[in-house]
Amino acid sequence: MHDFHRIRRLPPYVFESVNRVKAAARNQGADIIDLGMGNPDLPTPAHIMEKLKETIGRPRTDRYSASRGIPGLRRAQAAYYGRRFGVKLNPDTQVIATLGSKEGFANMAQAITAPGDLILVPNPSYPIHAFGFLMAEGLIRSVPSEPGPEFFHALEREVTNSHPKPIAVVICYPSNPTAQVADLEFYRDVVAFAKKHDLIVLSDLAYAEVYFDDNMPPPSILQVPGALDVAVEFTSMSKTFSMPGWRMGFAVGNERLISALTRVKSYLDYGAFTPIQVAAAAALNGPEDCIVEMRSIYKKRRDAMVESFSRAGWEIPAPKASMFAWAPVPERFKEVGSVKFAELLVEKAEVAVSPGIGFGDGGEGFVRLALVENEQRIRQAARNIRRFLDNADKHLHNVIPLQARG
Does 118 lie in the same domain as 65? Predict the structure, then answer.
């Protein structure tokens, strides 16, 4: 039997081989320190949980909800953008609630993409940034993920030489997976380029509140005058409020694009459970001390990882933002690649990471480490890795001859 048409456009899931090794190790009783998936382990703040409990069971709250989000939630998101970024949004026309930013992004791709449309996507990047468009039968061209001159040189090359001409460009800062950050000057240049070449800009700002320099909070592209003419931005409550399983995110920005997403979603879902939306509004309108605490915890974990892994013999660049570190594969293991290195870490060090190639071929030679274990567990991971690196020659001897024969 042939694969279905859209399934054929999706390559094998790169992370699956590491997941299999991880599952096998756990079945054998191994205590895996899992730094792979960016799945926040912190508890949802108490006042948000209380609002959820208070709302459940109220009349009509268990009926179908609103696909684009209840009015109070959209107003809360607009108010957040006003406080945080100084951006004024119309909650009725420029804000839509999504079932997480990932779903919003994928459905925006469905809304704006015709077969054969060309999209410019950073490489490496979060997989949905590319595969959302591939599932919508679009075409992808890679541009650098670093927000510097080479990014714009690549945009210029693609606009000049590509047929058909690109319709959109994706940006993601703080970046998943690389943890790079962008400043407002970069966003000004992106908006100017997009206006000059009639491009849509899709900005993923899911990690806006996970930053470690209090003097440099990540900006929004919508702070740039005129950005609302070309841009939509996606945010999520998963990291900011430790609500990953609640599946609550937003798309905000250009009215025409928000309208297109609203229309697509109206055929696909009735929105999140109403009590979840009410609790999400309470989170956005509520005290911010929980966000400050979240930031502090991740910063301590980052510092523990950078310090302890360095002592173990693996230099980890300190991320300025996001809940990830983007680390080069140690030099001795470059030859085996990021997937095999990640498998070896599970098998020999009982530590799980995400292979960089899973985020695009530009990620080969790196792995992504998530700050989702406490400091004690991170330091234990470093001790395990030190023993692993001390025995690197033995591990490589068992791997490289097999690869050479294959």
Answer: yes
Q: What is the mean pLDDT of residues 375-381?
A: 97
Kindly state whether residues 298 and 337 are assigned to the same domain. Answer: yes
Q: Is 49 exposed, middle or buried (0-12, 13-18, 19+ CB in 10 A)?
A: middle
SS3 at position 292? helix
CA dist., res. 376 & res. 303, Å (int)? 12
- What's this model's pTM, rounded to 2 decimal places? 0.92
CATH number at residue 104: 3.40.640.10
CA–CA dist 191, 224 (Å, integer): 8
- SS3 at position 229: helix
Chain segment 114-139, per-residue pLDDT in tens:
999 999 999 999 999 999 999 999 99
**Residue reference for tokens 């360095």:** 310
Long-range contacts, 287-292 (Cβ 8 Å, 24+) = 287/47, 290/45, 290/47, 290/241, 291/209, 291/240, 291/241
List all residues 6 or more positions away from 31 whose beta carbon is below 8 Å from its beta carbon.
Answer: 350
For the record, the structure tokens of 240 come out as 């900011």
